[in-house]
Amino acid sequence: MIRRRNLRKGVQLHNEKDLTKPATLEVVTPVQVRLTISEGRYHQVKRMFAAVGNHVVELHRERIGAITLDENLAPRRVSPVD
Questions:
Q1: d(C-alpha 77, C-alpha 31), whole Å
Q2: What contacts 14, CB < 8 A, 6 or more positions away?
Q3: What tens digit of pLDDT does each residue of 12-28 get?
Q4: Sign of the CA dihedral 39, 36, 30, 3?
Q5: Residue ranges of the domains in the chain?
Q6: Which of 1, 11, 36, 40 is exposed most, by the fewest CB atoms within 10 A?
Q7: Exposure string (b/e) for 47-63, b if CB count within 10 Å is 16 or more?
Q8: Per its record, what are the GO molecular function terms (predicted)?
Q9: Backbone angles phi, psi at 42, to 5 degrees
Q10: Overall pTM surpassing 0.70 (yes/no)
């Protein structure tokens, strides 16, 4: 089970002094969640889940800042930004 309260408050990552900024977590299915973060530390999502006793099997980025990625964009492909 994911400790949502910990993610909402911020998580202490291994070898880092400061907590992560608070995140929001939406359970999509019993094995899939949507996590929204407002900073981008090194492998942050994987490290946050590890810090609360879970692991990431697959990761999909939907948005970077104000740019929403095309859901049909294949891995390792690029798309022009308007």
A1: 27
A2: 47, 50, 51
A3: 999 999 999 999 999 99
A4: positive
A5: 4-68
A6: 1
A7: bbbebeeeeeeeeeeee
A8: 16S rRNA pseudouridine(516) synthase activity; pseudouridylate synthase activity; RNA binding
A9: -55, 120
A10: yes
